[in-house]
Design brief:
single chain, about 300 residues, alpha/beta, 8-stranded mixed sheet
Length: about 300
């Protein structure tokens, strides 16, 4: 099976390795030649442009986009559309806003082309060893993609959630929940750090991984981060908002659904850009551990 993969950054490169390990032929493109060269060394068939990528793939083609949400997705779709046949499928595996996906789907359908949206969870480790995929697509498109999904997802880790747009909608809410979970961990560990006792935060994180109600992957990652630095000394407590939490809060408002935890966690990310806090340090460290998101390092405004 062949797959075209556009975007070979943290997530895209690891997804390419995942695909290669499962016996898939990956034709990859990125705007930065050095990024393509690194992927080529790993076994990807690197190309220098969209036309070459399409030419290297045998119809019916599957072209997976793993690029940041926003205008770049529109640019790629517009660049690919004239090169594709009616049987080809573009998959948006990034965190696009679902309303943008609905708009793109309508434009693609009017041109007789197929678009699927795959909300992709699991971070860089998941991309490498098995993602969790929330798939929005027409039934016949999903059926064609299912062998690929079976190969690159963890067991039980993909679902056809509904029509095009629904995959990104479900992933948006998933990330909104993630915002709240990260914020709760950050606040809890700040209370521990500022409390009246000399506590080993990394040992508490280790303890809570075993049998506690709040055990799970995020706690595993928190212990890992605290083992690197017991007080996260070099990490600034700045956590940028990537968009999905805000979109979830906006959707909740549109639907008249109270979602104070998610909304509050979005506001706390904005606050983190102004004031140093240990809670924000924890969230920044966790996002680096599971997603490779960059952290800002330097002298903190205050010690804990």
């Amino acid at each position: 099976m062949q797959v075209g993969l556009i975007g070979l950054g943290k997530m895209g490169f690891n997804l390419a390795l995942n695909m290669l390990e499962k016996g898939l032929q990956v034709v990859g493109y990125a705007r930065t030649p050095a990024t393509v060269a690194r992927a080529t060394e790993a076994g990807v068939t690197g190309v220098g442009g969209l036309t070459e990528l399409v030419d290297r793939l045998k119809p019916p083609r599957v072209i997976w986009l793993m690029v940041p949400a926003g205008p770049g997705v529109d640019e790629l779709i517009e660049g690919l559309a004239p090169l594709l046949a009616a049987s080809d499928i573009i998959v948006d595996g990034g965190n696009s806003y679902y309303k943008d996906t609905l708009r793109r789907y309508g434009a693609m359908r009017n041109r007789g082309l197929h678009l699927a949206d795959v909300g992709t969870s699991g971070g860089v480790e998941g991309a490498r060893y098995g993602i969790c995929a929330m798939v929005g697509a027409e039934k016949e498109v999903f059926d064609r993609l299912e062998p690929l999904l079976q190969a690159i997802c963890v067991p039980g880790g993909y679902l056809h959630v509904g029509p095009c747009g629904s995959g990104h909608f479900v992933k948006m809410v998933h990330n909104g929940i993630e915002y709240g979970m990260l914020q709760a961990l950050g606040e809890g560990f700040e209370i521990l750090a500022r409390g009246p006792f000399e506590l080993s935060l990394k040992e508490i994180a280790r303890l809570w991984r075993h049998g506690s109600v709040i055990r799970g992957w995020l706690m595993d990652l928190l212990e890992k981060a605290l083992n690197k630095e017991s007080k996260l000394e070099s990490i600034k407590g700045i956590v940028h908002s990537s968009g999905e939490g805000l979109w979830t809060a906006m959707t909740a408002l549109e639907l008249g659904i109270p979602a104070p935890i998610i909304a509050g966690s979005v506001f706390m990310r904005y606050r983190s850009e102004q004031i140093e806090s240990f809670a924000a340090k924890v969230v920044a460290a966790l996002r680096y551990e599971f997603g490779g998101h960059e952290v800002e390092r330097g002298s903190p405004h205050g010690a804990f």
